[in-house]
Amino acid sequence: MTGRSALPPPGQTQAREMAPEMAREPAWTTAWVRGYASLFGHRDGAGDIVRPGAFARSLARQTPLPMLWQHDPCEPIGMWTGLCEDRRGLQVLGRLNLGVARAREAAVLIGTGDLSGLSIGFKARRAQRDRAGRQLIDIDLWEISLVTFPQVNGARAQLLAPPSGGLTNTSRRPA
């Protein structure tokens, strides 16, 4: 990713907190991932285009979202603790739980560049049909997965260096 990030670096909080606050953890138990889970104005492989503001309802809930492996609900690998809509799309910050074998594998794959895809699991609450698919106006976001083949090519993640301390659960609503 290039440019300024709307999310704070790990270890810093934003004005709005998600409950409950995470306890400080040793750096070796977690790895941090940041990226874009969805991009506005890009038609995905299913024919959907997400519009700006579509995640507002989900962001207002201020609860962490499950991080899954390849959209498999039987393979949770962490939690997304920071979500923010910016001009580009839905920017996310998440914690891989390295106590889970698949999360350790994911951290290695992301760190080496062998895997970087992100994909959202959602229900469309409001959409408009167009010739090639749907314009998604209001989305109920259920989960965000690390995937091999993202529906939107630019939906990518990168591994961050572990923070020196913990991270407070945060969410920022669109300005």
UniProtKB/TrEMBL annotation:
From the UniProt entry, list the residue stretches annotated as the region Disordered. 1-23
Q: Keywords on this record? A: Hydrolase, Protease, Viral release from host cell
Write down the superkingdom of origin: Bacteria
Coiled coil located at which positions? none
InterPro entries named in the record: Peptidase_S78_dom, Prohead_protease
List, in alphabetical order, the Gene Ontology terms for molecular function in this entry. peptidase activity
Keyword Hydrolase annotated: yes
According to UniProt, the name of this protein is Prohead serine protease domain-containing protein
Name the source organism: Roseibium hamelinense
